[in-house]
Amino acid sequence: MRTIVSRLIRYQSSLSQIRFVSASGGGRYLSTDSNKIDEPFNVEEAETVHVPPPPTEKLLVLGGNGFVGSHVCKEALDRGLSVSSLSRSGKSSLQESWASRVTWHQGNLLSSDLLKDALDGVTSVISCVGGFGSNSYMYKINGTANINAIRAASEKGVKRFVYISAADFGLANYLLRGYYEGKRAAETELLTRFAYGGIILRPGFIYGTRSVGSMKIPLGVFGSPMEMVLQQAKPLNQLPLVGPLFTPPVNVESVAKVAVRAATDPVFPPGIVDVHGIQRYSQQKSR
């Protein structure tokens, strides 16, 4: 019995030493030492790591005031890119708000000096340059001009180059020989100079609202229905001679969307993207 009483006395003595004290910060801490006031724990703030922001993507659009080029500029601006354009006429005549946010350069792609100045600080290029005329003129504007741009961009250390080319149309290729020979020469140069960052888009007929002066021409009125019909007739593309004539048209906004993604997405595969690939990529979410 005496042993039990002795243990109870020691237990009560221990409890009397246990008390709660208030810390200056309002918290309460358990203490077993009657002569010691516990201080609140010192909690150090996590160190803030200052990670530098990713480098600004600067895109140069060649032919940015044309039908396709203007849509490319707008798409790139919508994605938050810094956009500049080089074309023979310089500043776009379009009276739209986005046009004032583009840095416009006037120059000719056949003059390499002007092109090199426009490439300063540029990380990617999209060329929408092309045209029709005599065979010699078509080769020069579709081939030589773009080849100059590709070489200059490569020498400047540009990472990615996207070229808006054209789908084959079989017999039509012969009738527009200079046009297609120029396009294919530019493609060859691109795949040589930009083996890992060169992308070629080959759309067929591109439709959308085209501005001609103050007039707007809604090419989508017949382009959109044709696209829906010919998408379902893909096997007809395999017919000899006439098969390429069944290549479906594509919306200019789809071309612009894929072009900008190809120019800025490092995992976008290099190489040739046909009209079906353009349609497929345009339906995917951007990274």
Automatic annotation (TrEMBL):
Which superkingdom, per the lineage? Eukaryota
Q: Which Gene Ontology terms cover its molecular function?
A: protein-containing complex binding
Q: Which InterPro entries match?
A: ComplexI_NDUFA9_subunit, NAD(P)-bd_dom
Q: What is this protein called?
A: NAD(P)-binding domain
| Any GO CC annotation of this UniProt entry | mitochondrion
Q: Which Pfam families match?
A: NAD_binding_10 (PF13460)
UniProt domain NAD(P)-binding: residue ranges: 63-206
